[in-house]
Amino acid sequence: MFRKARVLGAPLVQFLSEAIAMTYTSDLLRLLEQRGYIHQMTDAQGLDALAARQIVPGYIGFDATAPSLHIGSLVQIMMLRRLQQAGHKPIVLMGGGTTRIGDPTGRDESRKMLSDQTIEDNIASIRTIFSRLLTFGDGPTDAVMVNNQDWLGQLGYIQLLQEVGTHFTVNRMLSFDSVRLRLEREQPMTFLEFNYMILQGYDFRHLAKDMGVALQMGGSDQWGNIVNGVELTRRMDQKEVFGLTTPLLTTASGAKMGKTAAGAVWLNEDQLPAYDFWQYWRNCDDADVGRFLRLFTDLPLDEIARLEALPGAEINAAKVVLANEVTALCRGADAARTAEATASATFAAGGLGEDLPVLDVPSEGVRLGAACTALGFTASNGEAKRKVVEGAVRLDDAVMDDAGLLINLAPGETRKLAVGKKKIGVLKGI
User: Fold this and answer.
1) Annotated binding site for ATP
2) Does domain 358-429 have CATH number 3.40.1280.10?
3) Are 2-246 and 273-348 equal in CATH topology?
C-alpha cells in the first residue's frame, strides 16, 4: 500500500502514493482532497491526526526572482489559502537567502545573480498577491510572511558544515532529479546551486524549531527537497514534521501552467493588465474548466459540478465564471467586472472595450508589424510578418497583407488591431 524512499542515508520514510485513496478525518485533508491538491504525503495518517486535533502551521517557500509570481505559483498560494480556510496557520516563506543561490530544479543554467536591493524590492512587490488571498495578523490562524535571509544570512559556513552537512550524503544528492537530469544533459551545475537543497532542508528545520511549523507543502518537483527537510528535522531535533505535494499542473494540451506564447501570465497588475489575465482563464481548454474551478476558486463543489457539466458551447459560460472568480481573487472584483465588460464590448458588440491594451501612436505613425510587437501580440517583428502572411492580422476587422504598412492617426483617433481571434488592442493617436 505504501511506497518508500530512503533519504539522507536515514531510516525509511513512508509516503502515500497518489493512486491510493484514504478517508480523512481532518477538515484540512478532506478539503485538499476534494479540491484536487494532494499528490504525495510523507505520513498521511499522522498529518491527518495532527490536523484533526490542533492548529497546524504550514509553509510554502517562494523565491523572489521577479517583481511578481506567475500563475504557475497560484496553486501553491491557493494551498495556503485552503490551509487557512480549514482553520490552520499559513506561513509564507520568502527566499531572500535562497534567491541568491537559485533552485536548480528543472533548469539547464544558473539563475542570474540579483542585487540585495532588487531582491528586497521583488519581495515587497510579491507580497501584494498574498495580501489579497490570505488574512495576515497576530491571531492563531493568521498568516505571517518570513524571509529566510534572516537566518541563512547569519549562518556561518563552518557551522553549516558541522551541524547540517553531516546529515547529507553526496551519493543521495547526486541522485536527485534536479542534479541528475542536469548532469545527464551535460549542463554544468555550480557548487552554489548544489547547496540549494541543503538550505531548503535547513529552512524547514529552522521553522519547525523556532515557529512550531509542522508542514511543508509544494509542487511535486519539490518532493525530494521536502522529504530532506522532514528527515533533517527528525535527525537534528527528534521532531516529527510532514510534507505534502500537489500534482504537476499542466493544461489539457500538456502545456505548463504559467507560460503562453506571449510570455508568462503574471499575478501582479504591474506585470500583466487585468484584461489579459482575465482572457487567459476565459480561453482555457474545455477539459480544464472543472479542475481549474476547484483549484483556483472558492465556488462550492456542487456548483462547480454543474458548471463543468454544461454541454457544448454552454461551457463558455463556465469559462466566464472561472475568469471572473480568479480575476476577482487576484486583482479585485472591479478588475473582473471591467475585464468582462471589455470582452463583451469587443467580441459581442464589435466595439472597443475600455480595458483593452492601448498603444500610443506618435505623429510620425507606426508600422503594422511593429505595432503588433509593441502590444505584445507577437514576440518579434519577424513573427509579426509571418502572422500577416498567414492572414491573422486585422486592422478594424480588415485582413492586412503588408507588415510594413504605415499607420497614421490623428490625435485621439483610435483603431482596433487584432492578431488571431483573441489578441485585440487599440491604436490611439497622440
Assistant:
1) 259
2) no
3) no
From CA 233, how far away is CA 225, in angstroms rounded? 12
Residue numbers belonging to the annotated binding site: 59, 196, 200, 259
Distance from C-alpha of 70 to C-alpha of 67, rounded to nearest angstrom:
10
Question: Of 361, 322, 360, 357, nearest to 342 (Cα)?
Answer: 357
In this prediction the pTM is 0.76
Q: What is the 3-state secondary structure (H, E, C) of 89-124?
A: EEEEEECCCHHHCCCCCCCCCCCCCCCHHHHHHHHH
For residues 260 and 280, is the Cβ–Cβ distance under 8 A?
Answer: yes
Residue ranges at the known binding site for L-tyrosine? 59, 196, 200
Lookup: cell for 51:
490536523
Q: How many Å apart are CA 97 and CA 112, to the nearest integer?
A: 14
The correct answer on CATH 1.10.240.10 for the domain covering 273-348 is yes
In terms of CATH, what superfamily is 2-246? HUPs (3.40.50.620)
* pLDDT one-digit tens code per residue, 52-61: 999 999 999 9
In tens, the pLDDT along 371-418 reads: 999 888 888 888 999 999 988 998 877 889 998 999 988 887 888 888
Cα 428 to Cα 410: distance, rounded to the nearest angstrom: 8
Q: Where are the domains of the chain?
A: 2-246, 273-348, 358-429
